[in-house]
Automatic annotation (TrEMBL):
Belongs to the cytochrome P450 family. It comes from the Eukaryota. It comes from Aquatica leii. This is Cytochrome P450. Its cofactor is heme.
Length: 950
């Protein structure tokens, strides 16, 4: 041991000096690193200095602009039109910076240089190039999810796979999907009808619909391939996007090793499990169909929709150009190749083609297929879900425009509810303009990032972008340029009148990007959106309490609308309810009122997948149980909360509740309630108690509380024994033993073994019981569990006593007595003392009787007392003690009385039972007779000891 002999102030000073040495070394090290970095990246730094951008700090640059909450709200005013748009904090900071710089803006985030482009001429330089196709490092975070799929890959791999995949989204392939688009759109409308007049978040429904359509079309499998709806997958994708967004904005989360140590790492793993399990199922199911010779989608199309297929096929040669399918007028890419360029073989849908390619050669491996399926599932669903949700929101906030869309639908379809055909989609001119305008004002992919390997000269001015920087094409800013769109912040479908689009720069509208790395799914997206949205508009009028200026945008990977205020309000209520209901102040009645109101408020709130509703019901159930002792009502609330939380990964930690998951917490409380209910009725109605314990057991298993699960099994076993079915009880106890052994629950194992032995006794297998007890004794001794050592000894002793082998019983009982005494377990100690006394007594009894028989006639009893006195306190055998006053005689009587009280161990001597002795009477009688000088004879006779024998 070392002793610090320095006085405290000296020790403190030495700590200070260590810290100051550290800083003295750190600061020059940082300066040196900075100088080295500037020299090694001289060209990058010099070219960057010529670019405009907001002022930053030394070393960290503008990194502070990227801190803050992605969901925090600030109001900003756009420079020219004074129209308020509410964006999230980071998003709005960057967005407003871009207004201060005309076409180009640079920011430094530590050593990383980002350059934002907003001029379509510059955007063209980057996007039309076959050289600048590398994605920026930020896309690396997608890798655990999307692998090296089309979105992320580069170089030869990207080129080869793009060539393979692009034709699978050719218009002629897409026309074959129309029936499925119609069928799924109808299914969505049916779901919406069921909601009646309720307000709901359309994004959830759009997400589910787009996932299911992708599965049935591009993947060619039935949506029934997965057990659950597309909703679960869509929610997992949304949460994954939140995590990726957090990693983009919280710089310390970027290194993988730190990320994995955080809660985000854990959550990501679980989400990827949900996502990848769907992909695996999809590929497996398609592979099986392929091996059976089935090509095309295996999804079923209802008959009334199928009937249009023939008519559609005759229109297959229609060639469509222009904005109808998302491309700017005049631009062509690899998706726009003519029909004749596509051989019959290439006109397979996406996953069919992938599987064929993997079987016919080395073009693509099965791992690569999985990566591409993940990529298409993500890119194809979240983007269209966002686009369609924005469309519906805008319809609601512009009723006059909505009416024009509905009017167009009436003109095309009249009163018929027939499914839409491809020709119909070409007729939907106004809806199409509304859709394009939606994608302009709220582009689902708001920015595109590329890594530059070479210097690039810009077209808009005398600027050079240095190799090594990240270029960001700020689509959302390009789309809101006043020189391209009059009143750019205004939703105006006429921006896409043919005469206006014809005069606009090709790269002034790029929701799907453009050039060689443009979106492969743009035609697919447009066709699907037209069918889905037209079906909805033919069935509903959309209303919303929000106007466009209330929209809050989330600076996410995919642009989305922020959560509304109701969710936040419920969160606040929950916190208040918890504070008053469970807090330190005794205001539970206020807590109860708040929780009851929160239940009402959250009952109709379904857009968070019922999370808040579930949490509130859970809290109220807990309140009723803990504060009101109202088990049955608490049970109902908790049961409902548990049901709603089943299969959900909700962490209630965000709401400061601090449990692992609502589901598990509900199960724990339900377990408690059912066990308590069971115990209350176990005596009067053991059958019902068994049922309650069985449900409690299931809850304990769900909550992963195994010792509690074992308790529930033990109680089932005990009740089963009470019903006289000891054989079933044995089975239950062996189940409990199995759990205890597996999980090394030694103490529980000991307890269970005691019940196990008891059940053996009940079925008449006492020898088995004693084997179990001996094993238990060993186990308890090895694990130093004195209570179970005592219990085992006691029961083994009792067993031998019952067997009529007191000489074997006594050592065990004496050991048990000693242990209970040490443990100060009074009740067990007293019981064991009696047993030990009986056992020892039984051992000695024949000897006592023999001695009495040997004693002479007149003093038989006196001698018995003397023997006993000698046994207890080693008094001289020949000393004539005073029987009436000392306790030696009393101890014999007690001994006899002990046997009498223990009843079950009673033995008879001669013709009389010891049970007939009244110790007090006996003592007084002996005393009296002795004093009268007529000792013992009659008394002996009275108590059945015959005079002749004596
Ligand atoms: C409204 C709907 C959609 C929008 C706004 C959209 C937008 C975009 C954008 C802007 C890019 C370029 C991203 C970048 O370079 O960082 C892109 C790429 C991509 N999109 Fe889409 N997309 C949509 C729908 C779809 C659909 C439905 C699919 C598939 C079925 C799809 C598949 C892809 C793929 C695979 C890429 C990567 C292409 C490559 O790098 O070669 N997208 N999308």
């Amino acid at each position: 041991m070392t002793v610090n002999t320095l006085p405290p102030e000296i020790s403190h000073n030495s700590q200070l000096s260590t810290i100051s040495v550290f800083y003295t070394l750190l600061i020059p090290a940082l300066i040196l690193w900075y100088v080295y970095w500037r020299i090694s990246r001289k060209q990058l730094v010099e070219l960057a200095e010529k670019l405009p951008g907001p002022k930053g700090w030394p070393i960290i640059g503008n990194a502070l602009d990227l801190t803050g909450t992605p969901h925090g709200i600030v109001n900003i005013t756009c420079h020219s039109f004074y129209k308020k748009i509410v964006f999230s904090e980071i998003f709005s900071r960057l967005y407003s910076h871009t207004h201060n710089f005309d076409n180009v803006m640079k920011i430094w985030v530590g050593p990383k240089l980002f350059i934002f482009l907003t001029d379509p001429r510059d955007v063209e330089v980057i996007l039309s190039s076959h050289v600048h196709i590398d994605k920026s490092n930020e896309y690396r975070l997608f890798e655990p999810w999307l692998g090296n799929g089309l979105l992320i890959s580069t170089g030869q791999k990207w080129r080869a796979h793009r060539k393979l995949i692009a034709p699978t989204f050719h218009l002629n392939v897409l026309k074959g999907f129309i029936d499925l688009f119609n069928a799924n759109s109808r299914a969505t409308v049916d779901k919406l009808h069921k909601l009646g007049d309720k307000t709901f978040d359309c994004h959830d429904y759009m997400s589910e619909a787009t996932v299911e359509m992708l599965l049935e079309t591009a993947m060619g499998v039935s949506k029934k391939t997965q057990d659950k709806s597309g909703f679960e997958y869509a929610m997992a994708v949304m949460k994954m996007c939140d995590i990726l967004h957090a990693r983009h904005t919280k710089l310390w989360l970027k290194p993988d090793w730190i990320f994995k140590l955080t809660k985000y790492g854990d959550i990501q793993e679980k989400l990827l499990d949900v996502i990848h399990s769907l992909t695996r199922k999809v590929v497996k199911s398609k592979m099986e169909a392929w091996n059976k010779g089935i090509r095309g989608s295996t999804a079923e199309v209802p008959d009334d929709i199928k009937s249009n297929q023939k008519k559609e096929e005759t229109q297959a040669k229609t060639v469509v150009e222009g904005v109808s399918f998302g491309q700017s007028t005049g631009l062509k890419d690899d998706l726009d190749v003519e029909d004749n360029d596509i051989g019959e073989k290439k006109r397979l849908a996406f996953l069919d083609l992938m599987i064929e390619a993997s079987q016919n050669g080395v073009v693509i491996t099965s791992e690569e297929i999985k990566e591409q399926v993940d990529t298409i599932m993500f890119e194809g669903h979240d983007t269209t879900a966002a686009g369609s949700s924005f469309f519906l929101s805008l319809m609601a906030s512009h009723p006059e425009i909505q009416e024009r869309v509905i009017q167009e639908m009436d003109e095309i379809f009249g009163d018929s509810d027939r499914p839409a055909t491809f020709a119909d989609t070409l007729e939907m001119k106004y809806l199409e303009r509304c859709l394009l305008e939606t994608l302009r004002i709220f582009p689902p992919v708001p920015i595109i990032a590329r890594q530059l390997r070479h210097n690039v000269k810009l077209a808009s001015g005398d600027y050079m972008l240095p190799a090594g920087c990240t270029v960001i094409v700020a689509t959302i800013r390009v789309h809101r340029r006043p020189d391209l769109y009059a009143n750019p912040e205004q939703f105006n479908p006429d921006n896409f009148l043919p005469e206006r689009t014809a005069n606009r720069h090709y790269y002034g509208f790029i929701p799907f990007s453009a050039g060689p790395r443009s979106c492969v799914g743009r035609k697919y997206a447009m066709l699907k959106l037209k069918i889905l949205l037209s079906t909805i508009m033919r069935n509903f009028r959309i209303r919303s309490d929000l106007t466009e200026k209330d929209f809050k945008l989330q600076s996410d990977i995919i642009l989305k609308r922020e959560e509304d205020n109701i969710g936040q309000e419920i969160d606040e209520f929950i916190k208040l309810g918890m504070f008053y209901g469970f807090g330190p102040i005794d205001w539970w009645w206020l807590g109860q009122q708040i929780l009851m109101q929160t239940i009402k408020l959250s009952d109709d709130y379904t857009k968070d997948d019922n999370k808040r509703k579930t949490v509130t019901k859970y809290l109220y159930g807990k309140f009723l149980l803990e504060n009101m002792n109202n088990e049955s009502e608490a049970h109902d609330y908790l049961h409902e909360a548990r049901h709603l939380a089943t299969g959900k990964l909700w962490r209630v930690r965000e709401l400061d509740i601090g449990q692992e998951s609502v589901f598990k917490e509900c199960c724990k409380l339900l377990y408690k309630i059912l066990m308590a209910m069971g115990k209350k009725i176990a005596k009067s109605d053991p059958m019902q108690a068994i049922r309650l314990y069985a449900i409690a057991e299931k809850h304990a298993a769900d909550a992963c509380i195994i010792p509690e699960q074992v308790d529930a099994i033990l109680l089932q076993g005990l009740c089963t024994m009470d019903t006289g079915n000891a054989n079933s009880a044995l089975l239950m106890f062996s189940k409990a033993i199995f759990f205890c052994n597996n999980l090394k629950l030694t103490e529980k194992l000991c307890e269970t073994n005691i019940y196990f032995a008891l059940a053996y006794v009940k079925v008449g297998k006492s020898d088995e019981a004693v084997k179990v007890l001996k094993k238990l004794l060993l186990e308890a001794e090895q694990n130093n569990l004195p209570f179970y050592v005592a219990q085992a000894n006691k029961f083994i002793g009792e067993y031998y006593l019952n067997e009529g082998k007191p000489h074997m019983a006594t050592p065990f009982l004496m050991k048990a007595l000693e242990k209970f005494h040490e443990l100060e377990d009074i009740s067990n100690r007293e019981q064991t003392k009696n047993l030990a006394a009986i056992s020892a007594g039984q051992e000695l009894l024949p000897k006592y009787v023999a001695v009495i028989l040997k004693c002479n006639y007149g003093s038989g009893f006196e001698n018995v007392f003397k023997i006993n006195k000698w046994k207890d306190c080693r008094e001289m055998f020949w000393d004539d003690g005073n029987l009436s006053s000392n306790d030696s005689g009393q101890s014999l009587i007690d001994f006899l009385a002990g046997r009498i009280t223990m009843g079950k161990y009673k033995r008879t001597v001669g013709s009389r039972s010891y049970a007939d002795f009244d110790p007090e009477v006996l003592r007084l009688a002996i005393e009296k007779r002795r004093k009268n000088g007529r000792p013992y004879r009659k008394l002996s006779k009275k108590y059945g000891i015959s005079a002749s024998t004596i």
